[in-house]
Write a structure and sequence with these properties.
Layout lengths: L2 H13 L7 E4 L27 E5 L7 E3 L4 E4 L1 E6 L3 E6 L4 E4 L3 E5 L3 E6 L2 E4 L3 E5 L6 E6 L3 E4 L3 E5 L3 E13 L2 E4 L2 E12 L1 E4 L4 E5 L4 E4 L15 E2 L5 E7 L2 E7 L15 H15 L1
Parallel strand pairs: 1-2, 2-5, 3-6, 4-7, 5-8, 6-9, 7-10, 8-11, 9-12, 10-13, 11-14, 12-15, 13-15, 14-16, 15-17, 16-18, 17-19, 17-20, 19-21
Antiparallel strand pairs: 20-23, 22-23
Length: about 280
C-alpha cells in the first residue's frame, strides 16, 4: 500500500469517515500529463482510473486540475478531493460525467479541495464541502452549468470545516437536506432543489441574485424562524421573494443594483474602480 493510501485510511479511522470501500486509487499525474481522469497513466502505479468499488483520492495536482472531459465517464466508490495540506481540484467539462457511488468530501483535514462542474455529476451518498476544524478543511463547489445530483445531504463546513458554493448556472438536485454550518453560498443563476435548508447566520450566509432560485419540497408558509428567513438578495441590496405552494416553497430575488456597480455584486467599492480602469485601458489600446 502506498503512503497516500496509508494516510487516507488513517483519517478514516481517526475521524469516523467510514467508507465501505475495498481499494484506494490515488491521483499521481506525471510531468507534462494530459491530466485526463480516464488515463491510467495519471494514477499511482497506473492502477487507475478508479471503478465503482474504489476510493479515489485526488491530492497531487501540481500540474493542474484533474480533468473529466468529453468521452470520459468517470466513476468511484467514494471520492476525496484533497486532504493533508494539499490543494487539489477536479473539473468536469462538457461531454464528461462523474458518478460517485458513495460519499464525496471536498477539502478534508487541513486541505483545500475544489469541484468545478460544467456537465453531469451524480453522487449517490452525501457531499461534504469543507470537513474538520483542527486543522480546518476548506471546500469549494463551483457549479458553472450542467446537473449535480446528490442522493444524500449536501453540507458546507461540517465538523468545523469551511465550505463555499458558487452557482452560475445549471441544476442541483438534493434528495436530503441542504445544510451549512460554516460557509457561504452564492446563487447567481440556476436552480437548487432540496428537501430542506438548514443554516445558522452568521456562521453560514446565503445570497441570491440574478436568476438564481431555491425550491424546497415543503410548504413553509406557516413556519417562522426558518433558515430561508436569513437568505439575502444581492448582498443585502435587493428583495427576497418567497412563493408558497402545496408541498413546495420557492425562494427568488429582485435586485436593482446601483448604476455605479460594474462588477455585478451590487456593492460600489474599489473593485468597481479597478474594473473601470481596466475597461478604460482596454479602450485606449
Amino acid at each position: 500500500m502506498n503512503s497516500y493510501s496509508i494516510k487516507f485510511f488513517s483519517v478514516v479511522v481517526c475521524f469516523g469517515l467510514f467508507f465501505s470501500i475495498s481499494l484506494a486509487s490515488t491521483w499521481d499525474p506525471p510531468v507534462d500529463s494530459d491530466l485526463n481522469w480516464c488515463n491510467s497513466a495519471n494514477w499511482w502505479f497506473n492502477d487507475g482510473p478508479p471503478t465503482s468499488t474504489d476510493t479515489a483520492l485526488i491530492n497531487a495536482t501540481d500540474e493542474g486540475a484533474a480533468r473529466i472531459g468529453a468521452g470520459c465517464y468517470a466513476s468511484a466508490g467514494s471520492l476525496i478531493i484533497s486532504q493533508f495540506d494539499y490543494l487539489a481540484e477536479v473539473k468536469v467539462y462538457p461531454g464528461g460525467s462523474l458518478h460517485v457511488y458513495g460519499d464525496t468530501i471536498l477539502g478534508n483535514y487541513s486541505a483545500t479541495g475544489t469541484l468545478e462542474i460544467h456537465d453531469q455529476v451524480t453522487i449517490d451518498g452525501n457531499l461534504t464541502v469543507g470537513y474538520y476544524i483542527s486543522p480546518r478543511g476548506f471546500g469549494h463547489l463551483k457549479m458553472q452549468g450542467g446537473w449535480l445530483s446528490v442522493g444524500g445531504d449536501l453540507d458546507l463546513g461540517d465538523q468545523g470545516g469551511y465550505g463555499t458554493m458558487e452557482m452560475n448556472g445549471g441544476t442541483i438536485n438534493i434528495t436530503g437536506t441542504f445544510g451549512m454550518l460554516n460557509g457561504h453560498i452564492q446563487l447567481n443563476d440556476g436552480i437548487i432543489y432540496a428537501e430542506d435548508l438548514s443554516f445558522i447566520s452568521p456562521y453560514g450566509t446565503f445570497d441570491i441574485r440574478g436568476n438564481g432560485t431555491l425550491l424546497l419540497w415543503q410548504d413553509l408558509s406557516g413556519t417562522y424562524g426558518h433558515s430561508i428567513d436569513s437568505i439575502t438578495a444581492c448582498n443585502g441590496q435587493g428583495t427576497v421573494i418567497k412563493d408558497f405552494y402545496v408541498n413546495a416553497t420557492v425562494v427568488r430575488t429582485e435586485c436593482v443594483c446601483p448604476a455605479e456597480d460594474v462588477t455585478g455584486d451590487c456593492i460600489v467599492n474599489l473593485l468597481d474602480l479597478a474594473a473601470l480602469a481596466q475597461q478604460w485601458l482596454a479602450g485606449a489600446n
